[in-house]
Write a structure and sequence with these properties.
Distance between the termini of chain A: 36 Å
Largest sheet of chain A: 7 strands, mixed
Oligomer: heterodimer
Order of helices and strands of chain B: EEEEEEEEEEEE
Number of strands of chain A: 11
Number of helices of chain B: 0
Number of strands of chain B: 12
Shape of chain B: globular
Shape of chain A: globular
Largest sheet of chain B: 6 strands, mixed
Distance between the termini of chain B: 41 Å
Strand content of chain A: over 45%
Radius of gyration of chain A: 13 Å
Largest interface: A-B, 24 and 23 residues
């Protein structure tokens, strides 16, 4: 069964540093998403991406965040200057025509 | 604006008993509804979805959910709980009227099945 792949599984970074979280969505999916979950809490929408541009974003997704699809397979989330409160599990997801949303296993980001 | 409510933070049930995890939603149009399960330190696994058609939806691992438009609910059910069903369960909704594709999640319900 096709999977969404996320790397790394765990990233530790110092406050103020830039991080890039990587995702490989399912190849024939057209919509890509980033969500985050602060330790065992609610899953929060960050951003959706379609046709090489952002289609929706939440108020969490401020100027510190950016997304990119640098080639035909990868989808990245960049946090420019990390804060302690950015510590969370970040999930990438993709969806296709059948309204099936597939999530990756997540990247646990720890900002110290 | 769309929203999802999971009124119970925690549900405990004895193994072999039926289980219900509640979810209600609020959207401006017709909803697409989803249930996901999260095991410890794992990602979100898809259980089932309601798009259209039969109000009773059957999904993975013996779970099912019933779409009730009048009560704006989409409760998750299973006839006989297993200890391995213990996990965090999330209900999610997509509001097709807004045209947005993203899902909005509830706060999650932790299910504990007691042996």
């Amino acid at each position: 069964e096709p999977e969404v792949t996320q790397t790394p599984s765990h990233q530790v970074t110092q406050m103020g540093q830039e991080v890039i979280l990587r995702c490989v969505p399912i190849s024939n999916h057209l919509y890509f998403y980033w969500y985050r979950q602060i330790l065992g809490q609610k899953v929060e929408f960050l951003v959706s991406f379609y046709n090489n541009e952002i289609s929706e974003k939440s108020e969490i997704f401020d100027d510190q965040f950016s997304v990119e699809r640098p080639d035909g397979s990868n989808f990245t989330l960049k946090i420019r200057s990390t804060k302690l409160e950015d510590s969370a599990m970040y999930f990438c997801a993709s969806s296709g025509q059948n309204y099936g949303y597939t999530f990756g296993s997540g990247t646990r980001l720890t900002v110290v | 604006a769309q929203s999802v409510a999971q009124p119970e933070d925690q549900v405990n049930v004895a193994e072999g008993n039926p289980l219900t995890v509640k979810c209600t939603y609020s959207v401006s149009g017709n909803p697409y509804l989803f249930w996901y399960v999260q095991y410890p330190n794992r990602g979100l696994q898809f259980l089932l979805k309601y798009i259209t058609g039969d109000n009773l939806v059957k999904g993975s691992y013996g779970f099912e959910a019933e779409f009730n438009k009048s009560q704006t609910s989409f409760h998750l059910k299973k006839p006989s709980a297993l200890v391995s069903d213990s996990a965090l369960y999330f209900c999610a909704v997509r509001d097709i009227r807004t045209g947005a594709n993203n899902l909005f999640f509830g706060t999650g319900t932790r299910l504990t099945v007691i042996p």
